[in-house]
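Thread title: Can someone regenerate the structure for this chain?

I was given the following input by a collaborator and told the matching structure tokens would be attached. They weren't. Posting the sequence so someone can regenerate them.
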Amino acid sequence: MSKVFTEITPLSEKDCFHIVERHKTEFTYPLHQHKEFELNFIENGRGVRRVVGDSVEEIGDYELVLVGGEALEHVWEQGDCKSKDIREITIQFSGDIFGGELLAKNQFASIRRMLKRADHGLSFPVSAIMKVYSNIDTIAKEQSRFVQFLRFLYILYELSVADGSRILASSSFAHAGKTTESRRVQKVKQYIDDNYSKSLRLSDIADLVGMTPVAFSRFFRQRTDRTLSEYIVDIRLGYAARMLVDSTKNISEICYECGFNNLSNFNRTFKAKRGLTPSEFRAMFKKNKIIV
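Best answer:
Regenerated them for you:
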């Protein structure tokens, strides 16, 4: 399999961030990754297809996504977009822009949490976009670099406290670390990561943390907003998607190695969750990759 293009951004050591605004009729940049964070705003792009890790979605009239994580592949491609004036504003910045000590301060707590979640890619709803629209709209044209930085900080803060942001790529695909959670939840997730290819039973997992199955089911859903079975399926699909991208194994092999015991069910579940069949997903990544 060919490798993903690694972008070398124009960001220099003396810059806090790099901003570029473009007006375009189509997306042609290949599937890529980079070590910097990227906040990408798109206007008039309805129908464009966004790929972040194993998340594949069609965007609407307004799009705002924060991507972090050096190994997180992403691309925006033309899809069904017919617009003749797509506006794109991209802000790229280093993860150490604030320094470890400043980011650890209480005033930056919400931004710190948001940057961690961005390891999976983070999509913001229109309500959040509208809160920062005026600053995004003018930030690229701002002449004062200091005022530009203040606008950038304001954008990050408002997004970090906005409701409705949504993680895109699954953790098992993105190679992202786990967020701060209770020890019991961490223990369960680690157990599932280590045993996703095997048969996993609710009673065994509940025993792992000293709870009854009924109590554990309620506890897990309260902490993760998902049932245990939904979480296990998502983890297995993430590993399956990664294998589709990074290996030449056939789909049947991947199905069984990732804990699914029925090929047709695997195909159906993958299509329902990812919007593409496993073969379509693999073909899409292969098409968008370039050899480096």
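Residues 181-288 form a domain with the Arc Repressor Mutant, subunit A fold (CATH 1.10.10.60).
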